[in-house]
Amino acid sequence: MKRKDFIILLWISLGTSLFFFFAFTDEKTVENFFLTLLISAMYSFLLGAGNGLINDFLNKKIPWSEATTKRTIISIISILLANTILVYFCNYMNFVVFQKAVSTQEYFSGRYNFINWFTINIALLISAFLHAKGFMEELKKTSKKEVVEQKLIAKSANAQFESLKNQLDPHFLFNSLNVLSSLIDENPAKAQKFTASMSKIYRYVLEQKDKELVTIEDEIEFAKTYCDLLKTRFEESVNFEFNVKNEDMRRFVVPLSLQLLLENCIKHNLATSSKPLLITIFTEGDNLCIENNLQIREQIKESAGIGLANIVQRYSLLTDKNVFIEKSEDYFKVKLPVLNDKPSVVTNLMEDDNHAYDRAKKRMMEIKSFYGNLIAYCVIIPFLIILNLITSPKSLWFYWPMLGWGIGVAAHGMGTFAVGKDWEERKIREILEKQNRNGKY
């Protein structure tokens, strides 16, 4: 037991002992006060600490977050059994041992059944409050943990995406300068033309590399310009064909994907005037394809592996659709998924985070409302019972508010934790999963 809990139980013992001493004790002596204090402490510590230990034990063995239904059933059974045993023991010690009001035989004859039943109900209310408090604390911990995890995922995905995009700038510049250095020796006139074209293309690289997606039309226009640049160096050794449908032009792909794949084609294949390399760019279903005849070049040094890997990773952060690679003895083909909408990694993550926060806030308000209702019930009903027994013990009217309000609290709890919310959340997940499987963005 924590020190804080011990102090709380001491204050409860003192408060109840003072109440019963001044309200129900005829002989107000020091001896009777300490007897009342001893009895109050017995009830407070045995019932309070007993229920607290049960709650702590179940929190370790069966946490609310891992098995809510199982925990609820075991909690109900355990608190019913434990409180019944503890109440019978406390009342026995009170009436038989301390007060010596009745004998053991009289106590178990049924004379004190109503008092036992009444005390058990009070104990169950206290126990329900303790278990509800434990559930609330674990829910807060779980919610905080989930929020932290989601923020870490969002930051990680954003950093990863930025890192991938930042590879494009030096990668393009490095490869272009390599081509330029080759042309300076081979053909200075072409090197000048290449330099002029490169400035135009590099402007596009700088503009588009910070975007998540671009239209196929923009990417094709850039690819054609880049192909002209390659033709400057390779002339008739490399040929290009573009067969993209007009209706696909307004759809989206990741930026600079064609440029990276064109580089791969040149880098990994031989291209000569007698054996030209043919590169075809076309749409096929929901894919933008780039295909070349296979003329594998022996690699002098190991490739950095930036091109295709970069494209695959960027697509994985934007969509569930995959990049496909086909390879045979005659050709090599890469299929890029074409998207109908233009999702944003950062925007989507922020929107998801905001929606999750709003849902969590609404959920917390619902739970807070339920626990407010439960606490009010646990405080007011015992007060009404005591008031009823003091003012008119022969007419027990407290049953009606206790029963009616109890049904309301139970219904409130079911609506907050059980039937309603679980059904809604399951249905929402089913709809979202179905939409994702059908590829609706």
Taken together, the total number of domains comes to: 3
Strand runs, count = 7
Return the string of H and E elements: HHHHHHEHEEHEEHEEHHH
Largest sheet: 5 strands, mixed
- Radius of gyration based on Cα positions: 38 Å
Assembly form of the protein: single chain
Strand order in the largest sheet: 2-4-5-7-6
First-last Cα distance:
53 Å
CATH superfamily of the largest domain: Histidine kinase-like ATPase, C-terminal domain
Strand content: 5-15%
User: What fraction, in percent, of the residue positions are helical?
Assistant: over 70%
Q: Would you state the CATH class of the largest domain? A: Alpha Beta
Low-confidence stretches: 419-423
CATH T-level fold name of the largest domain: Heat Shock Protein 90
Structural class: alpha+beta
General form: rod-shaped
- Average per-residue pLDDT, rounded, comes to 76
CATH architecture of the largest domain: 2-Layer Sandwich
Protein name: Sensor histidine kinase YpdA
Domain 2TM: 359-432
EC number: 2.7.13.3
Enzyme class: transferase
